[in-house]
Design a protein that fits this description.
alpha/beta; 19% strand; 5 strands; Rossmann fold
Length: 132
Amino acid sequence: MSSQELPFVLLVSGWRHATRVGHGPIIYGALERIALAFGHNVILRHGKSPYGGVDEIAEEIGRLWGWAIDAVPAEVTIGGRFLGSARNRRMCEKFPYPKQLYAFPHATSRGTTDCIRWAKTFGIPVEEFQLT
């Protein structure tokens, strides 16, 4: 790809309790498809979960491939509540570049489900990789 082409923006959302050993191979395999298609010309956007999980694992993998990282953390209220849905909306509406959401939900992933909803609202293609 030439440096003149717009980067591909890959949004990632997923289970905060994902682990490198148990779920890393699934996440790596999914992200590898993007690496093969776009090389280094990728911006990886994730929600910077304070708990780690998919966001942290995906960032580590993206850095290995030389991707730009755009972490979009949730704002926190004075009472300590994370405003995850507002963050998910910002993740989905931020850039006009080609983009896609790779979602790695678990049965208990309310935040990931919300991010999927926002992506669909903005017409962003979604691909899900269920974690167990």
